[in-house]
């Protein structure tokens, strides 16, 4: 399956608003058609895994929009903006970025994103 098919079939088709898969070097491998995520934004998200303290002040910035950083660990980061938010998961070789909005809830977005992330980990990605 192509990376684009993972975005389309495993993320967007499950009612996420926007989604992307990027490499841990910041390069974007695939994204939904209307997602204007930049490589620099991916690199900034990845740097938050090394030092999450800056995420509390700078937030999670996607498409130039700041999401309030809620919580995270070595694998998952969560952010909120209005009635929606962002769920980010780091795998062995990828960063999954999912943006959701109502009627999808944060736990549903987490389940969708993390299910794909766990599958990619089992495949070595």
Description:
With about 120 residues, the chain is of the alpha+beta class. It has one domain: Beta-Lactamase. About 35% of the residues lie in helices and about 35% in strands. The protein has 4 helices and 7 strands; from the N terminus they run αββααβββββα. It has a 7-stranded antiparallel β-sheet with strand order 2-1-7-6-5-4-3. The protein is globular, with a radius of gyration of 13 Å. The mean pLDDT is about 95.
Give the helices and strands, then pairings.
Elements: H1 3-11, E1 18-23, E2 28-31, H2 39-50, H3 53-58, E3 60-62, E4 65-72, E5 76-81, E6 84-90, E7 94-100, H4 106-122
Antiparallel strand pairs: 1-2, 1-7, 3-4, 4-5, 5-6, 6-7
Q: What would you say the CATH architecture is?
A: 2-Layer Sandwich
Helical content, roughly? 25-40%
Count of alpha/pi helices: 4
Strand line-up in the sheet with most strands: 2-1-7-6-5-4-3
- Could you tell me the number of beta strands? 7
CATH level 3 topology: Beta-Lactamase
Return the average pLDDT rounded to an integer: 96
N- and C-termini, Cα separation = 13 Å
* Largest sheet report: 7 strands, antiparallel
Q: Would you identify the CATH H-level superfamily?
A: Dynein light chain 2a, cytoplasmic
Report the order of strands and helices.
HEEHHEEEEEH
What is the subunit organization of this protein? single chain
Low-confidence stretches: none
Query: Could you say how many structural domains there are in total?
Result: 1
Instruction: Kindly name the structural category.
Output: alpha+beta
Q: What is the CATH C-level name?
A: Alpha Beta
Strand content: 25-35%
Shape: globular
Roughly how many Å is the radius of gyration?
A: 13 Å
């Amino acid at each position: 399956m192509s990376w684009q098919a993972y975005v389309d079939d495993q993320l967007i088709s499950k009612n996420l608003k926007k989604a992307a898969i990027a490499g841990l070097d910041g390069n974007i491998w695939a994204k939904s058609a209307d997602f204007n995520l930049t490589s620099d934004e991916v690199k900034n998200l990845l740097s938050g895994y090394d030092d999450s303290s800056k995420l509390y002040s700078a937030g999670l910035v996607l498409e130039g929009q700041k999401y309030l950083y809620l919580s995270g660990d070595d694998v998952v980061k969560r952010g909120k903006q209005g009635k929606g938010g962002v769920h980010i998961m780091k795998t062995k070789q990828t960063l999954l970025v999912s943006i959701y909005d109502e009627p999808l809830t944060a736990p549903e977005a987490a389940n969708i994103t993390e299910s794909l992330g766990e599958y990619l980990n089992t495949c070595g990605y």
